Amino acid sequence: MAYGVVIVSHVEQIAEGVKNLISQVAADVPITTAGGTDDHQVGTSMEKIQKAFDDNSADEILAFYDLGSAKMNLEMAIEFTDKQIHLYDVALIEGSYTATALLEAGTKLDDIEVQLKPLKIK
């Protein structure tokens, strides 16, 4: 099973910057982003999230986000995809970096989730 990563941020440049960072440790993991609103403002877009899901070549996706309304849009977008999405309430940079590096190393999802627990946002 191939896994991919989706990064959702309220700011396009943050989403792309996180992708740039985590790509350094995971050349073989498909990473797509959804940053900002449809008109390039601060916020999130369910349509951009759906496109990030669709554009990601993996059938199973680990999704990371920056703030609460991004989570809400992620949860709505999950309803409209056939892909299996795992949504994580963890620190965006640390969580996505950890998960992506472990995916690249071939770590099982259960073991990745154990590593993500200390990064959970309460």
TrEMBL record:
Residues 2-122 form the PTS EIIA type-4 domain. One of its GO terms (biological process) is glycerol catabolic process. It holds the Pfam family EIIA-man. This is phosphoenolpyruvate--glycerone phosphotransferase. Component of the dihydroxyacetone kinase complex, which is responsible for the phosphoenolpyruvate (PEP)-dependent phosphorylation of dihydroxyacetone. DhaM serves as the phosphoryl donor. Is phosphorylated by phosphoenolpyruvate in an EI- and HPr-dependent reaction, and a phosphorelay system on histidine residues finally leads to phosphoryl transfer to DhaL and dihydroxyacetone. GO terms for cellular component: membrane. It comes from the Bacteria. InterPro entries: DhaM, DhaM_N, PTS_EIIA_man-typ, PTS_EIIA_man-typ_sf. The keyword Magnesium does not apply. It is an enzyme of class 2 (transferase). Its EC number is 2.7.1.121. The keyword Transferase applies. One of its GO terms (molecular function) is phosphoenolpyruvate-glycerone phosphotransferase activity. Keywords: Transferase. It comes from Pediococcus argentinicus. It catalyses: dihydroxyacetone + phosphoenolpyruvate = dihydroxyacetone phosphate + pyruvate. Homodimer. The dihydroxyacetone kinase complex is composed of a homodimer of DhaM, a homodimer of DhaK and the subunit DhaL. Gene3D superfamilies: Phosphotransferase system, mannose-type IIA component.
